[in-house]
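S1.2 Input.
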Amino acid sequence: MSKENLLKKLNDKKNVYGTIVCIGDTAVTEALSLSGLDVLWVDCEHTLISGTTLQNTLIAAKAGGTPAWVRVAWNDPVLAKPVLDMGADGIIFPYIRSAEDAKKAVAACEYPPKGVRGYGPMRANLYGQIPQMEFVTQTYRECLRVLQIEHIDAVNDLENIVKVDGVDAFIFGPNDLSGSVGMIGQVKAKEMIEIYKRAAKVLRESGKPFGVATFYDEEWLKMWADLGATIFFVGSDYNFVYSGARDMLANFGKIFK
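S1.3 Output.
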């Protein structure tokens, strides 16, 4: 799955499937990138992945041919800058709560006068192979900007958030969204379903692709698809390691009686 094919899928509203990289081991990331997934989400918010480990993780994903989006730890241009310059295929900003937050995220990705990004792309411009003016006027925009909807404030201001120019996609975070209304962990509660429906309606009308980062559950994922979601980040690298070992051990009991 190339970056170009991923973009075509997003534009055509075709389903995009991914998982989350948390371990930060290059071999594990490369193995995932060879699995046929459309995109990998490298998480720098809830893990210790950063710096050289992050850059090597991006290189491993590229080795397998799978685009990698990086979630930064916070909506902060200082945190976004090295991720952009490392050549991530997309950047995910967590915990967006307002249109002003969305504008701040976009500004972190734009060069002046539209934004506040400093120039120093390194890997992002193929170590200098892409001419500077070509990069700052065209190529830099190949890194997609993705905002997370994971607070009720974002839902309440979503009509304004979707009007912010320069945002490419949205991802729901049901756990934190449920926590923001005092129902953490109750992601399937009736009250939460109504919140998802209200927000999804706004996103559908905006025409921007949106999706969810969640766990594997067929009925749950079908519900999101029915709401119009087309981006599905399910599970993580450590989930696959754990569940694979657990399932094998369970099967031993059937074999060796």
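S1.4 Remarks. DSSP finds twelve helices and eight strands in the chain.
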